[in-house]
Design brief:
Layout (H helix, E strand, L loop, with lengths): L1 H26 L1 H11 L6 H10 L11 E6 L7 E8 L2 E9 L2
Length: 100
């Protein structure tokens, strides 16, 4: 019986830790992603943007194209990200994006 109790306590502890991690990611996502979006500057090339995104937890642009592109944060399951406007291979404008 004590072995089962130890396993049950372990499962509960891991569940609480996992839920806390996920909850914290969503609670702090807006502030975190806004700060990342503000660091993307007009004039960055697509390759610089890709490197920056991957280094800061945003997915890269698999098929960058002129116009609107989205770089979303993986931690928040893509709900928070940056809307990036590209023209002639350069960043023209960046906006914070929340998808509900």
């Amino acid at each position: 019986m004590t072995k089962f109790r130890g396993i049950a306590i372990g499962v509960v502890v891991l569940t609480v830790i996992g839920a806390s991690y996920c909850t914290n990611n969503f609670i702090s996502a807006e502030k975190r992603v806004r700060a990342v979006c503000e660091q993307i500057k007009p004039g960055m090339t697509i390759s610089q943007l890709q490197e920056f995104g991957l280094a800061n937890g945003l997915g890269g642009l698999p098929y960058p194209r002129p116009g609107i592109n989205f770089m979303v944060e993986k931690k928040s399951a893509g709900r928070y990200g940056c809307k990036v406007f590209l023209d002639a291979g350069l960043v023209k404008q960046v906006e914070y994006q929340f998808s509900d």
